[in-house]
Amino acid sequence: LTYELQLDKDKNPADQRLFFRESFKSIKKRHFKMSDRICHDYSLYMKDDVNDKLKPIRLQINYMLSSKLDANIVPSILDPTNSTFDYNIPIQKDCGYDDICIPNIHLTTSNWPDVYKIGLTKKILLNINV
To answer: Residue ranges of the Integrin alpha first immunoglubulin-like domain (predicted)?
Structure first.
């Protein structure tokens, strides 16, 4: 059996937030024999400068039989039409009791003078309020 575990499935590589610690990649592929009972633990890390803190991190696991011999041994256990599983890891947010986050940021600007004349205007005052 071969399985592939992909972290942050919906993100392009530049925007991915979660990685496997030992490889610094977001995809892990493993092979093992069906006669073995195996449990794998993985250490993950999250980037420090994560911009998207609202959408959950989507994990996807795909499995496939490694050879035709495996398909003859366990045809009833593994359904090739249902070989993908998705899991979402929510990011904890403090968005109130309904967990709906609505940004409330306002930006206003003003400047003085209204018209800047090259060579005549010595100062420009710009106010930005967030």
So the answer is: 1-94
For 8, other C-beta atoms within 10 Å of its C-beta total 23
- Considering 82-86, 96-100, 115-119, the range whose residues carry the highest mean pLDDT is 82-86
Q: Check: CB of residue 99 under 8 Å from CB of residue 121.
A: no
At 79 the pLDDT is 61
Look up the pTM and report it.
0.58
Select from 22, 104, 16, 108 the least CA-distant residue to 59.
Answer: 16
Residues 6+ apart with CB under 8 A from 57: 7, 8, 17, 18, 88, 89, 91
- Is 5 exposed, middle or buried, given 0-12, 13-18 or 19+ CB atoms closer than 10 A? buried
- Residue 75 CB contacts under 8 Å (≥ 6 apart), including other chains: none
Whole-angstrom distance, CA of residue 103 vs CA of residue 122: 38
For residue 121 the two structure tokens come to: 């205007």
Superfamily of chain region 2-95: Integrin domains. Chain A, domain 2 (2.60.40.1460)
